[in-house]
Model the fold of this input.
Amino acid sequence: MAFISSGYNPEKPMENRITDIGPREYKEFLPPIIEKNFGKWLYHEILEPGLLMHKAESGDEVYTVRCGGARLMSVTHIREICDIADKFCDGHLRFTTRNNIEFMVDSLDKAKELKKFLNEQKFAGGSYKYPVGGTGAGVTNIVHTQGWVHCHTPATDASGTVKATMDVVFEEFQNMRLPAPVRISMACCLNMCGAVHCSDIAILGIHRKPPMIDHKVLDNICEVPLAVAACPTGAIRPTKVEIDGKSYKSVAVKEERCMFCGNCYTMCPAMPLSDKEGDGVALMVGGKISNRITKPAFSKVVVPFIPNEPPRWPTMTKVIKQILDAYAEDARKYERLGDWANRIGWERFFEKCGLEFTEHLIDDFRDPAYYTWRQTTQFKF
Amino acid sequence: MAKHKTPLLDQLESGPWPSFVSDIKLECENRAKNEKGVEFQIPADCPEDLLGVLELSYVDGETHWKHGGIVGVFGYGGGVIGRYCDQPEMFPGVAHFHTIRVNQPSGKYYTTEFLRQLCDLWEFRGSGLTNMHGATGDIVFIGTTTPQLEEIFFELTHNLNTDLGGSGSNLRTPATCLGMSRCEYACYDTQALCFNLTNEYQDELHRPAFPYKFKFKFDGCPNGCVASIARSDFSVIGTWRDEIRIDQEAVAGYVGGELAPNAGAHAGRDWGKFDIQKEVIDLCPSECMCYEDGKLSINDKECVRCMHCINTMPRALRIGNDRGASIFVGAKAPILDGAQMGSLLVPFVKVDAGNDYQEIKDIVEGIWDLWMEEGKNRERLGETMKRMGFQKIIEAAGVPFDVRQVQEPRTNPYIFWKAEDVEGGWDRDIVEYRKRHQQ
Done:
């Protein structure tokens, strides 16, 4: 493995240096039919699951075939996607905000041939490589985070929980028979780089044990004031600790005040909190982002904790399926999951989904908590 | 023969959904075979070690990645996230396994030529594993060593004409929906605005100078496909302020059943015959629609542009002609002070490429000035807003106060009057007061 230089000279880092050029201009990458009809689209139709047609003022029609993918993708896989785009789409493709891949062609025949081709491609282990779907009133791909694959703060895995969930709800990815779209999201800790706080169904990794404190190294690898300031509930204070007759500057944690957000660990690596028994997932439901009919809404925690059960998280996927089935059965056309729960009342939601309501589901974090308690005589028995 | 036994991960190869485990195994095989004779610059078997360390996490129920280290490329404070394995002896191929974020093109359109160049570079100098794409929108390269960082950056900028994305307390890589490129609902050119602001603010993107991260997202319409109202500190959402365009013939087509409602989005279940009264008129949140004698009418002045009628009858109804955008600020996920949705700052702004979007840039920069002055360490704009009051942000943005900025007026009368708000100011004489009122 001999080192091969790119041309960069470490002795003179500024020599020929190019910086601040930004991304490639998107116009370079638009398929010709998209470029030609840019801003001049009349309407669209979903002809069948995963197959869209956009009609332009010019009369042009572009047919898009959408397929799912794991967002964790190898270059081997991306090259295979490129081969498909070269064969069917003159070397153009795009990705969606929810990690789907879209191939665009100019006729329905080509689109159907492409759809068939994509659905025939399988990995050696048997899973689809490019399952077509993810459109309309169904479940589309799950947006997610890194998890145990590549992050230092997760309370669960992301790729594994997503794979297990999508396997269980796969029929809804390939169909459009739900009352409205159902957006599922996954974040492997409360940092939520996956921002799951506005999803119909959210899988969220959570910790339940306060941080451990590595007193002997804390002062060397962390700034004590930053660790103290990191705690949103003021549970961390500076202290001195004596170990084997030696005094260390460190911190103390008032454990009963800990809400397990992990922000201290983000600021201070000497305060790890992950734990096999303590960690697992919470499920949140009823959020949305679209302004359609009702306002954007936050997801609500309806299952406070499910243990991590790798590799397939069977309890978690069972509960998700339970919620999805109850919604599909009972909601009205156009009603998002949260709109359905609001209409029937959350007391009915728990009943219909077969979920237990526990003390952990009553908000007690700052002012917004009060607004989630009930201040009316209107409720259902 | 696999380097590590992965009995738990192997169970994720079955089932219909694309298996990331199968994909990584394929990458392992290809790197082992190395048919093209690539001179791998980091351990060829690093994907094997990634599977190994992930399997260990599946057994332990805990991550095996350490806190990031300070690594990066010269002159930039973001775009690279240091990552080290906490079991380097067991998994030497991933002992140093840093992430590189590459700024994606607006709307995530690609040519295969560009994607293949990215693949070649990443196979040669990295793990060959990516995220297409990361949660904020970047192309994410997962796993390389420190000596490769400058080499990769050099190749990206010299040969691929592209740049890194954001990380840390800086402007994060802006993201947009596909906008006017393939959507009839787009009220402005989201891709152009995203591209322009990304280039305008390269310094803010690469050199952390903010209290915390700052995200721009651009949605073309209130459907919000890129989730800007929930996920960005500065969210620009397309809208219009004139009439929804109605094609009465097409309305009749929907009523008569010749056209599929919802663009076919509900076609998988028999919901019965389309009922315009029940499915459109009655669901309108501002009750501004009416269907009588075969004619649809909309009281556009009362319309709140929720998109439901347009989504339901896209061939009959189209967005208005007087288009622009609303600007929302302060959205964020729960860390630390609870989740926040973007709050409406500017009800309507023209998105004007002609003057280089100056009106929008002035608003951005006004907000940044205040936030950089007043924001605490690791405080998102939304939290600064909550702490200081929305009025301060509105003032800093240099935009007028507007009843549309609130859901309802305040319920408490604790108004922070300023001296200049009050006739005569606050300076008063207690002696004079006592002349009128005995102690």
Remarks:
- Chain A has eleven helices and twelve strands.
- Chain A touches chain B through 147 residues (CB under 8 Å).
